Amino acid sequence: ICITTWFVLVESCTNSTECDRNIKSKILLNNALDMLTKVKESYIECPAAKPIDCEEVLLSGCNESGPYVIWPRSRVTARKSIDVYCDMETDGGGWTVIQRRGNFSRPQDYFYQNWANYKSGFGHIEKDFWLGNDKIFALTNQNLYSVRFDLKSVDGEGRYALYDKFWIDDEINKYTLHIEDYSGNAGDSMLKVHNNAQFSTKDVKNNPGKTHCAQTYKGGWWYNECHTANLNGLYLGGKHKTYADGINWISWKGYYESLDETEIKIRSKTFKKRN
């Protein structure tokens, strides 16, 4: 309803009660419009087309990293929009970020969440977050995707691990992980143990063996027996005495040093850098 209509309502009211009600309604409308404007301003403007991922956002001409809205083609998301963070800088850009860890003043165990929260996602896409297993399934089953793990230690050193193929199954199949073909300089901590593993959380054990890996190592992850990567573990900020419950990437920093920052991001396998 346009603002002019509200002036007409106020001017045409016949008693003080009706006028008060109309004025309050106008104030509520203005507050709602202000909130919508602020939300809109926090997202980067792009063409009206509905991109399915950050690569399509990049191809539409938006080359600035930040929050965007995309529309994955999937029965799980019913083609509804989802909010994502797009990395438009790393190795040509076009990456849809599905996880971020860092020093955002959260509790150490912020990622020690239950199945429902890992299913839907949690956190803030401009801070630390997990996008959500349903959304990751929707994204990785609409095309062929690669995945990149960007890792940083507490002393500021950065490394990465790139896997040429990456997708997960749906919830019925316990979000089973499929990952292949490593390259990078962080070492491979995913293929041998985590490929074909099912997702587990503190309230749902899907890993083989007697150990409840999610409870023992304080995360939600594709645990096997149990892990060589634990990027959703406790935020311990460097070396720690407890065994393997930090943000660990075994092939680089081992089981007793927790990483300071991580990002997991996906991009289509056929992506070609623009000149």
TrEMBL record:
Pfam families linked: Fibrinogen_C (PF00147)
Function: Lectin involved in innate immunity. Agglutinates all types of human erythrocytes, Gram-positive and Gram-negative bacteria. Has a stronger agglutinating activity towards Gram-negative bacteria than towards Gram-positive bacteria. Specifically recognizes acetyl group-containing substances on agglutinated cells. The hemagglutinating activity was inhibited by EDTA, acetyl group-containing mono- and disaccharides, N-acetyl derivatives of amino acids, other acetyl group-containing substances, propionamide and benzamide.
Species lineage: Eukaryota, Metazoa, Ecdysozoa, Arthropoda, Chelicerata
Keyword Calcium: yes
UniProt keyword Mitochondrion, yes or no: no
Protein name: Techylectin-5A
SMART domains, sorted: FBG (SM00186)
CDD domains: FReD
GO CC annotation terms, alphabetical: extracellular space
Keywords tagged on the record: Calcium, Disulfide bond
GO molecular function: carbohydrate binding
Domain Fibrinogen C-terminal, chain residue ranges per copy: 45-270
UniProt xrefs under InterPro entries: Fibrinogen-like_C, Fibrinogen_a/b/g_C_1, Fibrinogen_a/b/g_C_dom, Fibrinogen_C-term_domain, Fibrinogen_CS
Gene Ontology BP, a term: cell-cell adhesion
